[in-house]
Each structure stands twice: as C-alpha cells, then as structure tokens.
Amino acid sequence: MWGLANPDRFMRLTRGWGVALGGGAAVLILAGLWLGFTAPEDYQQGDTVRIMFIHVPAAWVSLAAYLALGGASFAALVWRHPLADAAAKVCAPIGAVFTALALITGSLWGKPMWGAWWVWDARLTSVVVLFLFYLGVMALRASIDDEGRAGRAAAVLALVGLINLPIVKFSVDWWSTLHQPASVFRGDGPTMTAEYLWPLGLMGLGYSLLFAALWIIAIRSEVRERRITALMLRHARGS
C-alpha cells in the first residue's frame, strides 16, 4: 500500500484501470437495471419501488466515498503524501454527485410514498449535512490560493465530517423517522425477496465500480496536472 502511494508507481500500476472498472460497472448496472425493471411490482409501492435500484446504491456509495475522502485526507494530513492529497481533492466532487443523486431520487420516491417531496426527518437531514460537507470541502480548498494550506484545511474539515457517517447510518434506529429501516445489511439477514435483492446487489456493485473508475481516472488527471504545473514553474524560474 505504501509503495502505491508513490505517484510514479501509482500511474504505472493503474494504467487502464479506469476503462476496465468502468466497463465492469456498465455491465453490472445494465444487468441490475434489466432485472430490476422486469421484476414484478411491489404489492404496496407498485412500480415506484423501482426507484430503489437507483436511489439505494447512490446512498451507499455516497457514504463509502466520504469514508474514502476521510482516509485520503488523514493520510495527506499526517504523512503529507501528495498522492493522498490529490485523491482527497478529486474524491469530493465525485462523492457530491452520488449524494445529490441519492437526494433527488429519494425525493422522487418520497412523493408517492409519503405525500411530500421532502420531510426533515433524521435520515434525510443527515444526508443533506453529508452533501454540505462535500460542498464545504470543495469550497474551502478553492478559496485558498496556496495548494498546501488549502489541502490541509480541506483535510481537517473532511475529517470532522466523518462524525456524520454513523449518524446517517443509524439515524433510522436512533430516532423516529418516516424513512424505512435497513432491509439489506441487518444482523438477522435481508428482509427483501431475491427478485429485488439480486438487482439491488448488482446495482450496488456497479455503482461501486463506477466510483472506483471515476476516482482513479480523476486522480491520474490530477497527478498529470500537478506535474505540468510543476514543470511550468520550474521553466519560469529557470528563465
């Protein structure tokens, strides 16, 4: 793992990973969508249950992406790894997109189920806070001209935001909420039938691979950009 933290080694080892992971994500997502949209209607929710196959994986990845952001931020702050700083920088906008997708599809699902596009219950509010942390990390980094200071400040804020992850996860257990409790990751096993569990699992894996592909591609682009900037500065000083 420490060897991979070297930017040169990372660039060599991850060549082609983005395309491979993206291709795998496309296959899994297409299979999940086909199984999900050909599954029978839910006896209570009807066709609206199919929003689950878009919404739930996006919510899962939004949490996983922030955990990745926190890990990269910790490594950048403690060990000053430039690759970890690059990984943290590009992770925030990707995670924000998945979180926005979860919020939008959750609202579309909530209208027919709850009769309202939005309710300020514990789960929804904590996910909004998660989205705001993503935006805050990006805004803080963009507001500071010095790259090193910007990375350290953004890393501190990202680490503070980790406190929100267990709140998002356990909000439906700790407080009374309209949002349904966990139905997949439970101590007594999933509560949904296989005809819904299989497509949901495929979509979850597909979204995870998609995040990994986008993250690796973005890190590689950031490393190249920093190398070009460093060469330009070196050339300017030499002349």
Overall description:
The chain is mostly helical and 239 residues long. The chain has one domain. It is built from 8 helices and no strands. The radius of gyration is 20 Å and the shape is globular. The two termini are 39 Å apart. The model has no long low-confidence stretch (mean pLDDT 92).
Keywords:
single chain; 239 residues; mainly alpha
Topology:
Layout: H1 7-13, H2 17-38, H3 52-79, H4 82-114, H5 122-143, H6 147-161, H7 164-174, H8 194-238
Describe the structure concisely.
With 239 residues, the chain is mainly α.
Number of domains: 1
Mean pLDDT: 92
**Span between termini:** 39 Å
Going by helix content, strand content and strand pairing, the class is: mainly alpha
Strand content: under 5%
Principal-axis shape equals globular
Please outline the major beta sheet: none
Helix content: over 70%
Number of strands: 0
Tell me the series of helices and strands, N- to C-terminal: HHHHHHHH
The tally of helices reads 8
How big is the Rg? 20 Å
Uncertain parts = none
